[in-house]
Amino acid sequence: MPALPVRRIATSALCASLLIGAAAPVFAADSSDERASRTVVSTTVAPDAAALLNQVKTLQDTGGVLTPVTGLLDAVLKTKDGKLPADEAQKHADAIKSAIDTAKAAAPAAPAVPATPDKAVPDDAKAPLDVKADALAALQSAVDALVKSATAGDVTAIATQAPVVVTGLVNFLAATLLSGALPAPNLPGLPALPEVPAANTPALPSTPSLPATPSLPQAPALPSV
Q: In 3-state terms, what secondary structure has residue 22?
């Protein structure tokens, strides 16, 4: 395509400038009240800001656990002989315990699920918060075993315990997602997550109906005199 002549380019630029200049008074004609209204709307905090802040806090707590645990895994798996110096291993262990304790303290207490008289509460009836607490406890146990193996330089034990720690992290993430504290993922093509079972509270037995009061027999009529 042949290049546009310089004069045509200049003319087009001039027309654009004139159009912008003509529109400027229109923009300037907005009243100060309208500008103030737009400013207020743009700076007003969304009504669901508190809920979003709670979700951000949940993500931060999750990252607080992930970072030290993955740091331990990274340090152990990069050693040549599988042996981690005791002071370094203890430093990782302390950081992880602190993070897990913080995550436990941040979660509200789970509602108690009463057991029925004839059988215990099944595992699938646990509240989501119970599942998250169980995941954190299992992760701490797996980390302790890995630290012990790495301090001793037991390569075989490390090969066994490292995948357990990774699985513990995955379980913790899954429990956090299913706890309801975070929005459900909406990535196209992602399979739907299973619904979180609500805490099953056994229904109170219905009050048995009282038997009907039997009618009293009528007194025989007195003979007439």
A: helix
The CA-based diameter of the chain, rounded to the nearest angstrom, is: 141
Rg of the chain (C-alpha set) = 35
213 in a structural domain: no
Q: Would you state the structure tokens that stand for residue 203, as one six-digit string?
A: 């229904």
The pTM assigned to this predicted structure is: 0.58
Residue 202 lies in a domain: no
Task: Give 130-192 as a 3 state SS string.
Answer: HHHHHHHHHHHHHHHHHHHHHHHCCHHHHHHHHHHHHHHHHHHHHHHHHCCCCCCCCCCCCCC
Whether residue 34 is found in the same domain as residue 53: no
Lowest mean pLDDT among 131-140, 188-197, 214-223: 214-223
What is the total count of domains within the chain? 2
Which tokens hold the place of 134?
Answer: 């169980």
Which residue is associated with the tokens 């309801």? 180
